[in-house]
UniProtKB/TrEMBL annotation:
Localisation: Cytoplasm
Gene: uvrC
Domain UVR: 204-239
Main localisation: cytoplasm
Domain of life: Bacteria
Function: The UvrABC repair system catalyzes the recognition and processing of DNA lesions. UvrC both incises the 5' and 3' sides of the lesion. The N-terminal half is responsible for the 3' incision and the C-terminal half is responsible for the 5' incision.
Transmembrane segments: none
GIY-YIG domain residues: 12-91
Matches recorded under Gene3D superfamilies: 5' to 3' exonuclease, C-terminal subdomain (1.10.150.20), GIY-YIG endonuclease (3.40.1440.10), UVR domain (4.10.860.10), UvrC, RNAse H endonuclease domain (3.30.420.340)
Name used for this protein in its record: UvrABC system protein C
Amino acid sequence: MLERPDKASIPDQPGSYQFRDREGRVIYVGKAKSLRSRVSSYFVPPETLPAKTRAMMAVADSVTWITVASDAEAFMLEYSLIKEHRPRYNIRLRDDKSYPMIAVTMNEQWPRAMLVRGARRPKIRYFGPYANAGAARDTLELLLRALPLRSCSAAKLARHTRDGRPCLYYHIGRCVGPCIGAVSQGEYREMVERVSQFLGGQASELARSIEGNMRAAAASLEFEQAARYRDELVAIQNVLERQEMVISDDRDLDVFGLCADELEVSLQALRVRAGRVVGTNGIIVDLVEDLGDEEMLTRVVELYYAEKAFDYPSRVILPSPVGDRERLEVLLSELAQRRVQVGVGQRGRPRALVATATENARQEFRRNRTRRATDHNARASALVELAEQLGLESPPLRIECYDMSHLQGTNYVGSMVVMEDGLMKHRDYRHFGVSIPKNDDFAAMEEVLRRRLGRLLDEEAKTMDRSRRFAYRPNLILLDGGAGQLSVGIRVLDELNLSSSIALASLAKSYEEVYRPNFEEPLRLPRGSSALYLLQTLRDESHRFAITYHRRRRTITAEVSVLDQIPGLGPKRRARLLEHYGSVYEIAHASPEELVGAKIVPEAVATQLLDRLTKVYGTNPSPVEE
């Protein structure tokens, strides 16, 4: 039973608090303007608490807190802790869609615009996200016809710069040719800013500016330049025609719609920039906490801006009031570093936009329900069938699969992939560098299993201070291999006294036979069965994960070892060479004059470097016209 901490010991400051269970796992993360008031509110008679909060307090064994300077810092701290620990009793983001965005690589000398997905990286400008990848791709293509930034990779740019010859895109007018110096750095940066201006919602201003430049060029009798401005203007107007004007002024808005029940909520946003709808975005979350309608809306909007938003509007329109509108405004303003107003769409055009966003949320809610119900039923059926086929006491909710990869006994690596509730849990995947000095798959498998299961036991015994990400026991361990790998697994589990709590199996590639302890003959699951498909998915994923890691290590080892053998080529020169040429292969095919002309290494070092690389990659090929 969790004892109530001394109220005086709890700081009366903003911050984040964390409830932990007896195993030390974080089960709930919250934030508060006053930690003293918020934490104390949990220690009341249990019957007065909401049901879900009461269940959490029954499991909690301790509470800790971290103080910060402001509400915004408390919010970001809470978000980062939730991302790290995935607490059981916090609302959880369940939308696994990766929306496309347009990124401008400001971290490069010659930036490029491209369509990307996934997490944001520093020093890159992001615009979007877009609900429709095709529409985003069309927008980018039309825009780059008017403002043709480069689209090639860094390695290709370096190669064409070194050769002094542009690629085909320059000849057809789809690139301004930074690789051959056809455009100055200042002119190129101006184009980049114009692309960013358009994608940032200032398309009308950009169109007016280009039209003014076109008229000025025509008045100065610079008709070729005027024609180029005309083509830019036409391309931009074509993009603008595809974007619906929803308000008459140039305001930037995020308009939210909501659809929820007792278990989950769908939040969808219409992103309006300069009066035009530039995209939609949204999230689906599980409602694990007991929250009122106003608090639920506040928490979900906060989660949206922490997880899915890539820019901040000047005004946020909500479908209903929130409990502390001023506090939400302060939070968003601090995050955006400028004033953000929060309002409710009660009349006029804002009300119509809220209705549209709400309908989008309702449709996404229905699609998600149908999709999840179908997926859940199929996964549950496969796990039940697998338990029956393998003779397990219950369906294995967590399965770990292991595989080894090597090249003639070198660069030995192991992989562990994880499936929970029939879904691959990518964040729990692990690589293992194996110390076995020779080609011995059995010894390598034994080392990996001992390390993983030993870590499990240490974490359960609380003898490790690191993050407890390995603390969850698998219900089933699957090994890629046959009877030999199974015998290794049996030996390790027996020695660690885990054979009674963790089931074991191995899947052989030859006839897709499954080996189990205490079974005289291997099992042959029916072809096309859900259980066999599930095991094959695990085996193939572990193999892919191991091979990918092995290739990366082998490439790094080969390239570093080659460059390490050159006298006078230290870490700084190696880094500069790889940055300039893009890869060791490109360095190997540079001429001595080019290598010396780059002013990275002296002539003597360049000669030794090319001699060594020629033995690895062959002689320099003769130039070929593109």
